[in-house]
């Protein structure tokens, strides 16, 4: 209640009680606050700083019932230090002001300078004034409770990572919580549903336009519940997938008051589902491929062992050597597969950290090329090197040698007999490059993005039954990644061939 309104209520109470003056007090902590008065005695307001216990209003507060005094001087209930004594007041009538719970929170009172006997209608006027103040307190409590509830609700909504938007029955946006407002960078002028649906940066998950009349909040405002509809939103964090639920808001009589829409960000969940599908597929491919690759050498070993067990006891050792050699080849193939799997796992998990040192990349490439010479010669493949005198950098010599060996082995394996494989080293002050180029068959466009995928086997390898488990290039890529470098592949048709291009920083 404003001071003007409280003063008018005090004046009406004064007139109704035919008193000299009237006042309205409310409790404020341990003090009384004068919120309204009419014709108060000169100097009365400065006396309000005395303790509540020394005032007549304090007597009303303690007793919780009206206090009617005909003569202040002769009534023992009047405290000795009561302010009314200092300003010449002789008669007093005060009624309690209560809150909605019934507790006394103030006093509405009238006073007179003459000793008097208060008539019932006069006291009734004071009681009516107190009742009016009680109604005001109840209204203030309701407003305060509503304010607190709204403050609580707004704070709760703003603390959510989930986006929330709501409008009233006329389409005015009454809520857009912090999460949604900041993610969308909502302009201040977007305050109505019509502008909202036209501005909202929304598409289908596939990127197709959305019918603006079918946006969730608009549909809910027209009475339709929307559940689990998925959209893509363009936000400050990039494209996000959201699942939207929207509901009409109605009162108990069913009259529509507005609508609310809730935006759940499911981007990470969808990505996790995708990764789970990829993991499941990779596991299946792994089991199929590794099962096949393991079964083949094991079958070979068992076959040769069976042949040895079927041989006559007096069979000359010379006749068994080929069988033993075949079993040995199967065992070696099995060992290489197991070592590759363990090596890939160790690199992936970081269990084998790089041993960084000053390395000459030319020496690394030369060593790997010498190792590959016998393999190239067996297929009549010309293996050439184009290297500078030296190319120093920081790296793990053993791992870099392993990486170049994998690239050369891959190039020789997929190059037809009589072809050419060339390894080139070059560089600048900051970067060293290795290129391994072969004259093998061109890799199809659809296979090229997958050559570094684990267990990937191209159509050529499958058709020609080229042995391998699809682990060499993934290991090579991990080694390059651990050196903070890049590895890419390119192919050409004229002349046919494939080039593996590796870039490594020369300083770590």
TrEMBL record:
It catalyses: ATP + protein L-histidine = ADP + protein N-phospho-L-histidine. It is an enzyme of class 2 (transferase). SMART domains: HATPase_c (SM00387), HisKA (SM00388), PAC (SM00086). GO terms for cellular component: plasma membrane. PANTHER family: HISTIDINE KINASE 1, TWO-COMPONENT HISTIDINE KINASE. Residues 289-508 form the Histidine kinase domain. This is histidine kinase. Keywords: Kinase, Phosphoprotein, Transferase, Two-component regulatory system. Residues 487-508 are annotated as: Disordered. The keyword NAD does not apply. Residues 227-278 form the PAC domain. Residues 487-499 have a biased composition (Low complexity). SUPFAM superfamilies: ATPase domain of HSP90 chaperone/DNA topoisomerase II/histidine kinase, GAF domain-like, Homodimeric domain of signal transducing histidine kinase, PYP-like sensor domain (PAS domain). Its EC number is 2.7.13.3. InterPro entries: GAF (IPR003018), GAF-like_dom_sf (IPR029016), HATPase_C_sf (IPR036890), HATPase_dom (IPR003594), His_kinase_dom (IPR005467), HisK_dim/P_dom (IPR003661), HisK_dim/P_sf (IPR036097), PAC (IPR001610). The keyword Transferase applies. It comes from Paractinoplanes atraurantiacus. One of its GO terms (molecular function) is phosphorelay sensor kinase activity. It is found in: Cell membrane. Its main location: membrane.
